[in-house]
Amino acid sequence: MRVAIGSDHGGFRLKEEIKSYLIEKGYDVDDFGCYSEESVDYPDFAKKVAEAVAKGDYGFGVLMCGTGIGISIAANKVKGIRAALCHDGLTARLAKQHNNANILCMGGRTTGLETAKDIVDNYLSHEFEGGRHLRRINKIMDIENNG
Ligand code: RB5
Fold first, then answer.
1. Is 98 a catalytic residue?
2. CA 28 to chain centre
3. CA distance 129 to 97
4. Which atom of ligand 1 is nearest to the CA of 109?
5. Chain centre to alpha carbon of residue 21
6. Is 42 in the pocket of ligand 1 (CB under 6 A)?
7. How far apart are CA 9 and CA 64, in angstroms?
8. How far apart are CA 13 and CA 134, in angstroms?
9. Average pLDDT, rounded, for the chain
C-alpha cells in the first residue's frame, strides 16, 4: 500500500522516524516534505498530502506538526479528507473503526516515538465498522457538499 507522509519543522523528526517505521513494515512511502528543521508553514504540507490522498493515489496519509493541531485543521479543508489527530492507540483505533480516517495526524512535540508507533499500529490493524458510523460520515460529506 502507498502512504503519503508530510510534516512541518515541528513534526520533522517524528516524520523521519515514522517514515522509516512504515518502510520497515513494507509500505511504499512518498515523503512530501518538509526535509529539514528549517521553519516552514504547515498548511503547505497538509495541502500536498491531503490532495494526494483525496485523489486516491494513496491508501492513507500521515501528517505531523508540533502539536498535530494546525496540520489536521488544514488537511480537513480538502474535500474528502478525514484527518484525525491521534494521541494514543485508542484514539487511532477509533479513528479507523468509527471515523474511517484517511489521514493520521500526530504532534512531533507532544507524542513520543513509541506512542507514535502504537498509533500507526492501531490504525493499520483495525477496520472501519460501517453501519451507524457510515451514516455519520455520510452526514459529514453532506456538509462538505451542500453546507
Ligand atoms: C510551528 O511552530 C507550530 O505552530 C506548528 O508546528 C503546529 O504546532 C501548529 O499547530
1. yes
2. 15
3. 5
4. 8
5. 15
6. yes
7. 9
8. 35
9. 98
Positive or negative torsion for Cα 5, 57, 84, 129 = negative
2-146 has CATH 3.40.50.450 classification? no
DSSP code of 99? Answer: T
Find out whether the beta carbon of 67 lies less than 6 Å from any atom of ligand 1: yes
Q: Give, using CA atoms, the residue closest to atom 4 of ligand 1.
A: 66
Atom index in ligand 1 nearest the CA of residue 8 equals 6
Over range 65-83, report the average pLDDT. 98
| Cell numbers found for residue 105 | 495526524
Domain residue spans in the chain?
2-146
Q: What is the pLDDT of residue 78?
A: 98
- 86 close to 78: Cβ distance less than 8 angstroms: no
- Model confidence band, residue 86 (pLDDT cutoffs 50, 70, 90): very high
* Element housing 141 (H / E): helix 132-146
Residues 6 or more apart whose CB falls under 8 angstroms from that of 106 comprise 11, 14, 18, 62, 63, 64, 68, 85, 86, 116, 119
CA 25 – ligand 1 centroid, Å: 28
* Identity at 97, one-letter amino acid code: Q
Would you tell me how many other CB atoms lie within 10 Å of the CB of residue 20? 11
